[in-house]
Amino acid sequence: MVNNGTIDSMLAQDLIHIAIHPSGKFNNLIQVQNIGLTTRSRNLVVKTFLETTDAAWLLMIDSDERLSTDNFMKLVDAAHDKDRPIISGLVFAAFFDDKDDLRAVPTIYKMSEEAGLTAIDDYPINEIMEVDAAGTGCLLIHRDVFLEIQKQATPNQGNDWAWFVEGAIQGTYFGEDLLFSKRVKAMGYKIHAHTGAVLPHHKQFWLDDRHHKMVRDLTIQQKLKASASEEPLTSEADAQS
Questions:
Q1: N or C: which end of the chain has fewer CB within 10 A?
Q2: 51 in a domain, yes or no?
Q3: Residue-number span of the structural domain to which 152 is assigned
Q4: Distance CA 20, CA 115 (A)
């Protein structure tokens, strides 16, 4: 887990419930403070995981999300060391579109030659699906994936900074999450997402008229419709007079 030294109280409550679940699937909690370099912090999480535990799986989750026990078990049950070594939950980011409307964007992606990486808006409900990339908001990753990346590390990366990097490839900039996906796919690993494991994402942002626009337009339309329905009807007697 990467955070700023604090953890959302609701996520803390979720983790307690997961830890005491009879399945016994939750063993250790690794928490790394984000000092402003998210890529460095994510590498520290993996380094700590490999050096201090013998666990087969690492669940990476951001501290501003929620993870219910049911959704945790969906991820665990979907994971397989060979067939599905990387499982993503369904996390939404928030972006303004070209119409200045704020919309939720699923952080699971498909690759096409025409558009590159694009978010999968038409994902199937409550299913396990293969994707080309996923954000790092909630990833369950098998230990062997990290070890294989470490084997292929460059001299500059060494053993401690090999897993998450960011930078430009052929003129396109990739953050550490999408570049991680790109690298593991190139190594032959498949990435899957469980669309039934939805993690609420706590966002903080400046509220302005762009957020209100859609509601404002709808309200105006409703008022115009209500006003039209309230216009007095002309009776036949009134017409004759």
A1: C
A2: yes
A3: 2-211
A4: 45
